[in-house]
């Protein structure tokens, strides 16, 4: 039986801060003292939601990031999400929501996140994309890291694209535990860290919008 992807023991990582520029309003998410997240938008209010904590497959790896239960802010796009502690940022399109978590975790949804929260709840008309940061202290090449730290996915196809100036591996998979629902996984390595994005949808238009979001993805130098 195919297994859900699971996280191993979280390991803390310190990353150089990234500053936000411009004169737009800054909306800060509510997070533990160990994390700093901002969403820069033009006068867009935030709404309260709870971070997803279960029911989502994730890779088997030494994780820098993992969702932690706490009340946080779901901010509507258009907005620039910036996790200065873990050194990455990206643009969230209009009509989508971004929710910041602890230890580098964030999630983007094409719907208000108080609704569907698991891959099995996300239909072809919705998208949920989770962002993780993993340590790669052994400096493994990306494919070796993926081979050693992921399991349980039914891989349908593999391709490549560029994210933040790095060559990324893209895997189309199915999730047996959610009735064979499709997912797309993105992995890329930057300065002994592996960034992973797990997107749940079967909608080509939403995946195209996610591709544009990934085009805006930036990683701060360490």
Describe this structure in words.
- The chain has 222 residues and is mostly beta strands.
- The chain contains 2 helices and 14 strands.
- It has helices spanning 142-149, 204-215; strands spanning 25-28, 37-41, 47-50, 71-76, 79-83, 88-92, 97-100, 106-109, 128-135, 154-163, 166-175, 181-189, 193-200, 218-219.
- It has a 9-stranded antiparallel sheet, sandwiched between helices.
- A hairpin with an 8-residue loop joins strand 1 (25-28) and strand 2.
- The longest helix is centred in the C-terminal third of the chain and has 12 residues, at 204-215.
- The relative contact order is 0.19.
- The model is unreliable at 1-35, 41-58 and 60-71 (pLDDT under 50).
């Amino acid at each position: 039986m195919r297994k859900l992807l699971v996280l191993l023991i979280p390991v803390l990582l310190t990353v150089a801060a990234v500053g936000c520029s411009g004169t737009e309003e800054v909306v800060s998410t509510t997070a533990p003292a160990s994390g700093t997240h901002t969403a820069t938008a033009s006068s867009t209010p935030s709404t309260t939601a709870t971070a997803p904590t279960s029911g989502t497959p994730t890779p088997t790896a030494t994780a820098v990031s993992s969702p932690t239960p706490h009340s946080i802010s779901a901010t509507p796009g258009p907005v620039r999400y910036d996790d200065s502690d873990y050194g990455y940022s990206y643009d969230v399109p209009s009509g989508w929501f971004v929710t910041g978590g602890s230890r580098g975790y964030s999630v983007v949804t094409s719907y208000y996140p108080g609704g569907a929260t698991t891959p099995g709840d996300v239909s072809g008309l919705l998208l949920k994309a989770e962002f993780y940061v993993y340590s790669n202290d052994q400096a493994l090449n990306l494919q070796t890291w993926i081979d050693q730290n992921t399991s349980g996915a039914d891989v349908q196809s593999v391709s490549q694209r560029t994210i933040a100036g790095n060559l990324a591996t893209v895997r189309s998979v199915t999730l047996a535990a959610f009735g064979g629902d499709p997912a797309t996984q993105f992995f890329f390595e930057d300065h002994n860290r592996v960034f992973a994005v797990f997107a749940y949808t079967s909608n080509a238009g939403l995946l195209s919008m996610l591709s544009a979001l990934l085009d805006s993805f930036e990683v701060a130098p360490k």
